[in-house]
Design brief:
There is one protein chain. It is globular, with a radius of gyration of 13 Å. The strands form 2 sheets. Strands 2, 4, 5, 6, 9, 10 and 11 form a 7-stranded mixed β-sheet that branches. The chain has a 4-stranded antiparallel β-sheet with strand order 1-3-8-7, with no helix packed on it. The chain is built from no helices and 11 strands. Helices cover 0% and strands 50% of the residues. It has strands spanning 4-7, 10-13, 18-24, 32-39, 46-51, 58-60, 68-73, 78-83, 92-100, 112-113, 117-122. A hairpin with a 6-residue loop joins strand 5 and strand 6 (58-60). The protein has 123 residues and is mostly beta strands.
Length: 123
């Protein structure tokens, strides 16, 4: 069982930056691929980024590529999402998720989810 707790959301002006954190419970954090997803009001939850257990492999949605960076610190059981050059269309609740071993862009493949953290980007 893995428990995930996100933090770091907030209100920021367009062009600004935020760093989200997701702290995970458990002693086998490095065996889990981690993902970030987001859901805006009225929209389906969508993939943002994923990172392998070692941190060596990452993959991004086209909409955030070049602006967002996913990383992890296995010693701290934490995954991060650094968000730069934020746009109003990045406004959403951001969720982190975990699945065993392999990265995936599909939310259906993830077994564990956090409660989400709100990110609001004003124009």
């Amino acid at each position: 069982q893995v428990q995930l707790v996100e933090s770091g959301g907030g209100l920021v002006q367009a062009g600004g930056s935020l760093r989200l954190s997701c702290a995970a419970s458990g002693r086998t954090f490095s065996s889990y691929a981690m993902g970030w997803f987001r859901q805006a009001p009225g929209n389906e939850r969508e993939f943002v980024a994923t990172v392998s257990g070692s941190g060596g492999n990452t993959y991004y949605a086209d909409s955030v590529k070049g602006r967002f960076t996913i990383s992890r610190d296995n010693a701290k059981n934490t995954v991060y999402l650094q968000m730069n050059s934020l746009k109003p269309e990045d406004t959403a609740v951001y969720y982190c998720a975990a699945r065993r071993i392999y990265t995936s862009v599909s939310l259906r493949d993830y077994d564990y989810w956090g409660q989400g953290t709100q990110v609001t980007v004003s124009s």
